[in-house]
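hi!! sorry for the late reply, been swamped w classes. u asked for the two structures so here they r. pasted raw, havent cleaned anything up. first the sequence of the first protein and right below it the tokens
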Amino acid sequence: MNAIEIINNTGFDTNEIDELKKFVDFSVKHLKLENIMFNVIVVDDEEIHSINKEYRNIDECTDVIAFALEDDETFVELNFRVLGDIYISIETAQKQAKEYNHSLNRELLFLAIHGLLHLLGYDHMLEDEEKEMIELQELILNEYRTKKHS
């Protein structure tokens, strides 16, 4: 059993949020994850800036922040995996979608899979890790788009 919650802390259109939920469910199945729990929280720039400053000592906005509970040394193993929380700034996603010349939907899905992979321990600090993470992100995004349009 998986417990995945999408929380919209903004007044943003729920159609995008509904699509985000479908994509996250698809990603979890693709990655063959079972007995997991995590949240995706959609916030505005002000909230993600505050979170970034408080928890990462970075005094600026960002697009996505993932808090991976399994990285915490005090983590207690249970019969299910409590992966953590993914925060996505809808305002930064809108700006980046425009900047990268693609849809807001595509940007939100990218940020969600990026955050989920961080919860699972993927990182992009080293070149080979980054390559592996980017390839997996693109594979899942492309398979979702193909499935959605078939």
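now the second protein. again sequence first, tokens right under
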Amino acid sequence: MTCLKNSRRGAEILTDYCAGVLDSIRAAELETHLQECAVCRHEVEAQRDVWEAMDAWTPVQASPGFDARLYARIAAEDRQPWWRRLVVKPWLPVTAAAAALALALFLIPGSTGRIQNAPSTTVASDKIDLQQVQQALDDMDMLTPVGPIARAL
């Protein structure tokens, strides 16, 4: 038998062996190999430790009434007016990001918000950090919801 590390199906064979579902011929071949290969023996021991830990684990019970509260909350969301689900909730993070961007632009050190010594038709592009604007736009894209609400838009 080839070493589990060198076999394409090594992980599958290891899992089947530890679960006790590997056919008897392959299991015998693996046991013979395990007597010679310390690396595979260590892998089998580690896998068995994981299985034992999973068998000993007891899941935490949900609090009484959890399901009822969850379904009530979902129903309350569904009862909200369509305009609130479509307009208000998705735009709250975007509005907050835009307000933060505007505040940051006004608080840049050395910037007074006025263009000094410049004709009225030119823009002071040296006062705007384009990288910061791009980052803010990327942040706003990241805050855009990606769920059934966004698909409805």
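hope this helps!! also noticed smth abt the second:
Residues 81-110+124-152 form one domain.
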